[in-house]
Structures are given as C-alpha cells and as structure tokens.
Design brief:
InterPro entries: WH-like_DNA-bd_sf, WH_DNA-bd_sf. This protein is of the alpha+beta class. 49% of the residues lie in helices and 20% in strands.
Length: 210
Amino acid sequence: MATERPRRREVLDVLREAGAPLGVAGDAERLGVHPNTARFHLDALVEDGAAERTLERPSGPGRPRTVYTPRPGMDRGGSRGVRLLPQILLRRLAAAGPAARGEAERAAREWGRYLVERRPPFSRVSASDAAERLTALLADLDFAPDLGGDVIRLRHCPFLELAEEYGPLVCDVHLGLMRGALAELDAPVEAEALEPFAEPAACFARLRRT
C-alpha cells in the first residue's frame, strides 16, 4: 500500500501534463509500467474522484477507446494543516486586547445557533430537554460530555492544544457555542459559566434555569 500512493500520484501527474485525454497504453508508456498497472491506478483515481473515464469515438473503424482525464480542482491528497487556520485566527483575535474575549464568545454564539437541532415550530422546550439537546450537540463536536443535573462534564477538549496556548479565548468560544444553541432553542436554561479543568480530567459547563 505504501508504494501505491506515490505511483498513483505519478499517474495523476501524467494525466495533468498530457493536456488531452489519455488511454491506458499512453499512460503506461509515459510511466514505463505495465498497462495493467496503469489501468489499476487510473481506475482507482476514478473511484477517488480525482479522474474521469470516458469513451472516445474512433476516427475510423474499430471499438471506442477508454480514455482518462483529470478532474478539475485542487489535489485532495496530501496532509492538512488543520490547526494552522484556528491558530492564525486566534492569534489575530488575541491581538485585539480586552475586547477579544467578547468577540470570540459572540462569534461562537452564531455557530451554536446554526449547529443545534432545531425545535419544532410552535413547541416549547423544557429545561431538561434543552440540556439533553445541548449535550447531544457537544457529543457531536467530540467533547465527550456527561450531563448530571445542572452541570455538563466535558471529558475531552477537541482544541486542547489551542486551549493550552490561548486559554480563556478558546473557553469563550466553547461557552458561546453553548449559549447560542440554548438561545436558538428558546430554552428556559442558559449556560452560566465554563470552568476549565474543574476536575483534573474534565471541564464543567454550568447551566442555570431562567
């Protein structure tokens, strides 16, 4: 498997450099591999959505030829810098000074409203139902929540390294998400506070009935 991926990337590069639809034989010749090897990787690229397979009408007598072209768009292979973007944004936000925490909480509120499962029209949501829906949302976001009374224990932080670096800013984002979700539910309960590491292995989200 370790040798397939580099070869598959080579096959895709050949398609991109060809400038025209390429058949199995042409791809194999350019790579210096057996046609069956080229066909295997070409078909895999089609399955991955990186290439397209079509039939090319012959210019004379004969059967249509199967040809391949790269799909337009950026290569979806390779690694992702999943932490880089939030680091950039948090660093920029932190430079705003005392107003940064309020901005972080307000921005997260909007996402909390967007992410929570909506209540049916013209229905009322009880405090306990709202707490359960909020807990379900936090579970979807990988916080490993545990609801007990008016406290939700968050046993996992999906942004732990960022929280260690930027501290309250990240906690304000989490709190804003919860407040936005409860506001969208029009629930008789609100997220009053978030206590980071209230236990050695958990943070506490404290709820207050309104």
